[in-house]
User: Fold these one by one.
Assistant:
Number 1:
Amino acid sequence: MQYSFNTEKYNEIRNLVSDELYSIENNITDFYCGSDNLQEELSGLLKSKSKRIRPLLAMLYLKMYGCEITPVQIDIQSAVELIHNATLIHDDVIDNSSKRRNRETLHTKFDNSLAIVSGDFLLAAAIKKLLNADSLEIFKLFQKAIKNMCIGEVNQYFNKFKIPDFDEYINKCKYKTAELFMASLVSSAMVAGIDINSAKDFAKRFGITFQIRDDLLNIIENNPDKPTNNDIRDGIYTAPVIFAKGTENLDYGIEKTKELLDNYVSRVQKCLNKAPDNKYKQALISLAELLKI
């Protein structure tokens, strides 16, 4: 069974910022990696079907407050997508995944060494985009996000086959996923001159919710690109295992995780209570609702 987003509803939300997302699509492949063969593969990966949920979230949030989407905002969100895809390339090497978005992964097509270098190259391309913001504070924000994402992965490695407590789990969700959501939205808020704390709180909650959903799908979804239960097999114990107090009684853990997910969706939506009431706010509320399973 597939638990993907409601495609019709998601596309309806995306259409509200389709011009901006189109600009980002064109902007993220504005580089040359030194090899026509690799250039083709990287461009194919970057332009393959993707939710683009981070820039989507940022564009909707900015438009909710009536902000103009400037070339600098496009560069920032393009950098976010480049960073995200760099981590996916590295993750595919770590997880030995053979498919990504119905495409052969880079390490499978070439080898681990070239895949790792390719991910590093996308990080360099992201840095170039971020420099266009001409802001040391934004640069520091992304440096911190990338550092914490790495720390999240390091901690996960050294805690394999250990059941974390609930606070440790939520903190891992923040480091692994919410950090990039926060960098994306807070940097955009800084450029636009809108409240940074509100943007940070919303992005953090959304990112944690997104990771809880992903962890739940790892247990219950039948996805050929992501083998079911591969987290459990690899000793990465997430919310369902925490609630079940082990890897056996997972039905109980799954139901409790669904409740946790619903609770976090409500927290995300509550962050928007004081935001201007317009179609972009309603789109963000609906986007959060799509995270439910």
Number 2:
Amino acid sequence: MELVHLKEINSTNDYVKKHMQELKNLTFVYSDRQTSGRGRLTRKWIDSGEDNLFLTIVIKPKESEFEHISNYTQYLSVILAMVLEEEYNLSPQIKWPNDVLINGKKIAGILAEGTTIGGEFLGLALGIGVNLNTSSDNLSKIDKPATSIFNETEKKVDKVIFLEKLYSKFCLLYDSFVCEGFLSIKEHYIKRAMFLKKPVSVNVLGVVHDGIAEDITNEGSLILKEKNELNIYYIGDIL
């Protein structure tokens, strides 16, 4: 288990991108405090205390694995959902593309950022923040519905044990994922996809599309029925 433990950092993703060349593949970099965490669409990820998880995974795919690079966040969302189910008896749901929710409230944020030098791709910083022990008082300060494992179970979560469980599950299914991509996790993803067959609004590069979420492709894209037309969206977020 390759671990880098930091006491405080502006962003674990920024740290990984800066040190990508010397970090090994599948190194887990985590920090007790994160002062400038961020999520998708430039959202800020609130530091809710050192009893929570601020983590970035170093991904250095081979050239033959590049075609699956956009699916790493979905892979991580499935892995997290499995850990929450198997270890904490929770019932997580996934909102396309990679938000993990409990009872309709967000428990984690995931953000992947690539690193290049001179046009050469060095690797992917696969970041995740998980609310492990955030209190209800601190959750109420977040501008969108949010929850934590402690808030759902009333049991304190040991961060190191949680990290070990996440690492173990991530590595267990990793070889299948890098070979097959989203198809290797599609069944697990669909099982937890709370948005399917429902009306949704999808933000695609600032343009909002309304329709029915019909299905997910073998590549992890969203099939949206808009009026009488099926459209496939490769990027975006369900609002």
